[in-house]
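Support case: guanosine-5'-triphosphate complex. Customer-provided input:
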Amino acid sequence: MSEERGDISGRPGEREAEKAVLVSVLWGDLPEEEAEESLSELRSLAETAGAVVISSIVQSRRKPDSATLLGKGKLEELQGLVSENHADLVIFDQELSSSQQRNLENALGVKVIDRTALILDIFAQHAHSKEGKAQVEMAQLRYQLTRLAGRGTQLSRLGGGIGTRGPGETKLEVDRRRINMRLKTLNRELRELTRVRRVKRKRRQRLEVPTFSLVGYTNAGKSSLLNRLTDAGVLVEDGLFSTLDPTTRRVVLPGNRRAVITDTVGFINHLPHQLVEAFKSTLEEVREADVLLHVIDASAPNIERRARAVEEVLDELGALGIPTIYVLNKVDLLGDEEREDLRRRFPGGVLTSTVTGEGLAELKERMAASIPASRIVRLKIPVEESGLISMLYRRGRILEVSAEDGFYRLLSEVPPELAERLRPFREDGGA
Ligand SMILES: Nc1nc2c(ncn2[C@@H]2O[C@H](COP(=O)(O)OP(=O)(O)OP(=O)(O)O)[C@@H](O)[C@H]2O)c(=O)[nH]1
Ligand SMILES: [Mg+2]
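Agent response - structure generated as follows:
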């Protein structure tokens, strides 16, 4: 993470990184390992948002305290930690109701946010396109609306920073009437942007270029993979949610098969549903793909659980039935035994590394094999149709060519959709 990113505060002049204490309250029978992993993920999220994590507290209870989530003793411990370390903010791994948040802020005298607000904040900082910004702002405002009751004064008393920042340099709206007005405007803007995106996609679909969509947990290496398979030059970063805006690039697969690959926003456990809702238009790209490349960070802990989290979001998007290639990435970080184990657990997967280039050729082969096979056609094309000839060179493979009185005779391997378009010129009956 760069110095600059750590400094973004949403308020000019405010340069100090915020000091945060993390809190996780467990109840029911959540496995300890899962809770620990969740807390370490919360730490990465907090750091991505620009905070410095100074301490964390875990409490197991039979059931959560309805007023403050934490029990009385732990709350006192937390008060101590906050005042000793001059913490600026407390981040809960579990969702807080607005009254719990208010009670906690009153007891602690600092800003208190939950995991959802933290993720929304990161999205707000990483949104660049007009569409991305509108989507994030919409998600944030919807989240604000559900917890506005009596919190307006707190927000201003406890200052700005993480949890109060909107996309760009604006501070989040806290007034219900103004939020509703803003939501109307955003809705209108997003509808128009969705329309434009659909038109573009339709154009691609008319050309019948097969589409691959990169999906996966955040930080799995989706953008790195896009960069290695094409020359996209998409931002790659060791932080969470670096990519929000979808990027689509052309790729040439073995056999000279043309396709496009789309990179998009990554997923995470407990991805705020407001975000999935607001990003529906961006995520339509995923639903419309012919094949999904599910990228998995094979060096991460508990990859099955992460894969499941991704599949839950895919399900929500109606994209679960799309043929999928599992891409087990970052294998440069694994030993031989771990690789073997991985092959057993994901029998159909391709092991890759965007660092060493391992597995990328195999992945391209697999991608080519996953789209409809090309056809061999015999053609007789008038020499004036030079456009067609050059298209054949671009999109297919010429196996034989000869010229005779004003015609070219060709034997060519072409993708199925092109075979269809060449029907009038075919000498093999066009079957
Ligand atoms: N060791 C290793 N690191 C990798 C590999 N691929 C990507 N990375 C690193 O993993 C981090 C995340 O890579 P990205 O390509 O930004 O991941 P992403 O899935 O696009 O992440 P988001 O857009 O944030 O969801 C970066 O620090 C990359 O350098 C790999 O094959 N091996
Ligand atoms: Mg990315």
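The chain has a mean pLDDT of 86.

Case will auto-close in a few days if no follow-up is received.
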